[in-house]
Design a protein that fits this description.
Two copies of one chain form a homodimer. Chain A is of the alpha/beta class. The first copy, chain A, has three domains: 151 residues, NAD(P)-binding Rossmann-like Domain (Rossmann fold, 3-Layer(aba) Sandwich); 156 residues, 2-Layer Sandwich (Dihydrodipicolinate Reductase, domain 2), CATH 3.30.360.10; 83 residues, Alpha-Beta Plaits. Chain A has 14 helices and 18 strands. In chain A, strands 7, 8, 9, 10, 11, 12, 13, 14, 15, 16, 17 and 18 form a twelve-stranded mixed sheet that branches. In chain A, strands 3-2-1-4-5-6 form a six-stranded parallel sheet, sandwiched between helices. In chain A, helix 1 crosses helix 12, helix 4 runs parallel beside helix 5 and helix 5 runs parallel beside helix 10. The radius of gyration of chain A is 24 Å and the shape is elongated. The mean pLDDT of chain A is 94. The interface between A and B is large, with 66 and 66 residues. Strand 12 of chain A pairs antiparallel with strand 12 of chain B.
Chain lengths: 428, 428
């Protein structure tokens, strides 16, 4: 039998999937005995279908894919949580297996969509939703199941990693590098999802759900982005032997789980420190396997298409063999979230202040009041008028105490709140 | 139903598998709905069974596992290609699924054993045979199937990587570090399989077979080990901005495939350069995914047990669901091996010579005669009597020309052949 595939979305990744079909459909049969065929593609315009050489497969209406009895597998690559959700749900309701790269959809409605897939005996595959081309969902759901996963630490947003890498290497400002990333197509016109850490939050919610066998949704993930990071911060980090990365992390503690996204200072000899540009990496620690890392292109047409099409082929293999989906996670562990206030971290904090007698003493008093011990304080750079930038590095302190310190210092006279004080956690 | 597992071999990895059962059997049921039970373990003595708390499961005779109608899955962890082959074959002939970490067995008899598994409708799983705990077989067989894999470059032998790391970091001699590795249990009393690159050759044969869909056996892999590497070579590499790693590589060219193991100089900014100690990493390049890397502990009790037990759980899932094995590789591509003579590489070559007038000129003439262009030549270190070490770094040259140069120079008067000249390829 030939497993027939319909594709909804012919943009960057969808176009890449068409390229995979064009390049390797015959190979899949000779190499793996997998007989797949792309039979229809849908988008708002036929431009993508034409550009990738399949104009004859174009349809304007996605219902022509989700309701076509001939189609076995639907690939959803339009993104977002509105039409994409309708496409995915209607496909599943019609008994079609679904492959999606849609992290936002899965991180918000994963439970509902997985239940629908189970109800209709369908495969729902999502390798491409995290880490672009990097195999990470597969290893977590299969190879690493013998472990209790203790933590995941990932650079999972290529846009912000590209920006931070160029800011550090070339001293470019946040604004300039964002404009450059937008021009290159690495960042959206509205960069919010990337620079505010929301895309990374969706991805770590998906990984944490699988790793901890506990449903985690995007809105449960504490997310801080990179808008307030300056070249001065990156220079200070380098002086200290660190680089700054936007990290998505998920940790298991005795009390429960902690899932979050924020910029962090990573020691230069840490494997994640060498992950530059649009590359992504996910560091996974398990009680038996110890430390493992998965590295590759976190975005891009062909890399992400590799992950999507890997899922399509895997499903096709099983459809041909007549095997039904097997149960993966039960999500029955329902671990509580720990209060981030009690987590302990070292911190790098930058304040902009007006230079006035007593300001340092006043700030020191606030640190002391909250029990935050200061490792070093330096004044960096030259500022306009009579302002100065003060950079504190603390010893290990409770997150709650650090935040309270920041809040109280921001209330002091002569401490400027535009820009806001910057807090960057320092990881070991 | 409960999927019943028998374990043959209770040494380092086998003991780790018992630990996984002890730690997580209940979790597997609640987390994944997988119901597995370790019902019998076999070894030459009951020591392992006792040490890991399951003396009641011990049997002295492996036939009690391979022929027991109650047992569904057999784990083979005794190593070697004699009794291990009998265990695996008898298990398959009795309809039992097999999980093995035995790279030597698979790299020699993979075709025969896979055919037997297919004939009896059994799963044969081998994640643990390469890279210890690192998920690499799974990603190659599943997540990355949409790609034509163009190359694999791996540090897949933890023993030699540990030795090279310590030699470079501490200036320890080959002999001292080998003795240390043997004492720590990282190296066998007979270290041949590790230090001569045979273990790495078996592993890259397995990876190349999957990646190129072409049967590659260990004896088809050109292997050079690390016996001739000295601390002087490592110091010279560092001066040049490189480190020395024992690399297992498999590349696809227009003419065919090249699969080999040899020490190589790796630039310090290459991701493989940061893989130190007993860690392993496998760098995989595909036509769609681009560059990916998989990193983790390449050996050790618990890390390797993670891979073995991941396979056991995956099989158990399918056995419970009543699904038969699906076809993976057909191995139908049957790509030819390219002649390594025509491959082009830069090289580091060290000769030991007696200091005599004209020796440098004579050596230069041999390089010129074979069309090998020399980038630099330096004399290193202080030697006894009137001998000197000459270190050449060449421009890109054909392997055939490099080997002919080495052979002809070794024939010159005053060039010493004990130790042999050292050739280390320099990778980009």
């Amino acid at each position: 039998m030939t497993v027939k595939v319909g594709l909804v979305g012919t943009g960057t990744v969808g176009g890449g999937c068409i390229d995979v079909f064009n390049a390797h459909t015959a190979d899949f049969k000779t190499r793996y005995g997998i007989d797949v065929e792309l039979v229809r593609v849908c988008a708002r315009t036929s431009e993508g279908a034409e550009a990738h050489g399949v104009p004859e497969l174009y349809t304007h209406d996605w219902h022509n894919i989700t309701t076509d009895p001939e189609i076995d597998v639907v690939i959803e690559l339009i993104g977002g949580t509105t039409t994409a959700k309708e496409v995915v749900c209607e496909a599943l309701e019609n008994g079609k297996h679904v492959v999606t790269a849609n992290k936002a959809l899965l991180a918000a409605f994963g439970e509902e969509i997985e239940a629908l897939a189970a109800e209709h005996g369908c495969w729902l595959a999502l390798e491409a939703s995290v880490g672009g081309g990097i195999p990470i969902i597969g290893p977590l759901k299969h190879s690493l199941t013998a472990n209790e996963i203790t933590s995941i630490l990932g650079i999972v947003n290529g846009t912000t990693n590209y920006m931070l890498t160029r800011m550090a290497a070339e001293g470019m400002s946040y604004e300039d590098v964002l404009a450059d990333a937008q021009e290159k197509g690495y960042a959206e016109a509205d960069p919010t999802a990337d620079v505010d850490g929301l895309d990374a939050a969706a991805k770590i919610a998906i990984l944490a759900s699988i790793a901890f066998n506990t449903r985690v949704t995007q809105d449960q993930v504490h997310a801080e982005g990179i808008r307030s990071i300056t070249t001065a911060d990156l220079a200070a980090a380098a002086d200290m032997g660190y680089c700054v990365k936007l990290l998505a992390s998920a940790s298991r503690t005795e009390e429960g789980i902690d899932v979050r996204v924020h910029p962090a200072m990573v020691p230069l000899d840490h494997p994640l420190a060498m992950v530059n540009g649009v590359y992504n990496a996910i560091y996974v620690e398990g009680d038996f396997v110890g430390q493992t890392m998965f590295f590759g292109q976190g975005a891009g047409s062909h890399a992400t298409a590799s992950a999507v099409m890997g899922d399509v082929l895997e499903i096709a293999r099983h459809v041909q063999a007549g095997t039904a989906p097997v149960q993966e996670n039960t999500y029955a562990d329902t671990l509580p979230f720990v209060s981030t206030d009690d987590l302990v971290t070292r911190a790098y904090i930058r304040f902009k202040v007006e230079e006035r007698p007593g300001i340092l003493a006043a700030m020191s008093a606030v640190f002391a009041e909250h029990g935050v011990s200061v490792h070093s304080v330096i004044q960096r750079g030259q500022n306009e008028a009579d302002t100065a930038e003060l950079v504190y590095v603390t010893h290990s302190a409770r997150e709650g105490a650090l935040r309270a310190t920041l809040d109280d210092i921001a209330k002091l006279d002569h401490v400027l709140v535009d820009p806001d004080p910057t807090l960057i956690r320092v990881i070991k």
